[in-house]
Request: fold
Amino acid sequence: MITFNDVANAYSILKNVVHRTPLLKSSTFDKFVGVDAFFKAENFQRIGAFKIRGAYNKIFSLTQTEKNAGVIAHSSGNHAQGVALACKLLGIKAVVVMPSDSVKNKVEATKAYGAEVVFTGATTDDRERTTDELIEKHGYTPVPPYDDDKIIAGQGTVGLEIFQDLKDLDYLFVPVGGGGLISGCAIAAKHLSHKTKIIGVETTGANDCYQSFREKRIVKIASTNTIADGMRTLSVGKRNFEIIMKYVDDVITVSDEDVIKMMKFFFERMKIVVEPTGAVAPAAILKNILGLKEKRVCAVISGGNVDMAVMRKVLEI
Reply:
């Protein structure tokens, strides 16, 4: 299991590559919920999401032989963009396997960064199968989306920055897809702030980690049904789950309707665009599931790469 030193080493690599994203506040939100809330705005990150952190840390660490072979990744969107940009910055060939129903602007951005995109089926299993076939055929070096020590350490720099800027934080809410972000943030949080409780948040239509946390084993669900495309993984990664069980205090769920309400609040009251997955953790605070009156809390906005068709529907509701 990786340690805080791995996260700190990743930060030394990333600090001159990624943006140090701000912590946002809304007095209206605080008064409505009754908390002192902060939002770590990774929607302002390069590529519009936190994924560049893990992708760059992983690809930077490869041997020259592995770099020369070119890298391959599979992703529904944000990891794809992270890998594509990291490879562009490092001068490495990138191939990305994406589901056929990927958000259009995420596909276009991935291609714009110079990656070759290969489309496959809609599930994680489809993406993994196609990726394995291409590795077998071409010898590419894989860059996993979440179940990897370098990826986890890179994503953990989100948490490191939060605790450099915030003291006396009672709760940190983090969205859970494959588990890279929450596992990295949990390692950083428990090292830098022993009092802070770490809460993972999923949508009810993609609640594999919620089930896994309660059953104390990895539960793989048959399918997902959620507006949050970054949560359409069928199970969390093995490394990620071990860290979650050691450091995370609870995993809770919100509905797609809760996510839409949060997206609307961000747009109408805070004037920022947040993708559905990015609104999941903040939605748990808005709904006040844990009854956290007068607590000092923070939620990670994981990204802002929203499909404009989805955004139009959100604003019409």
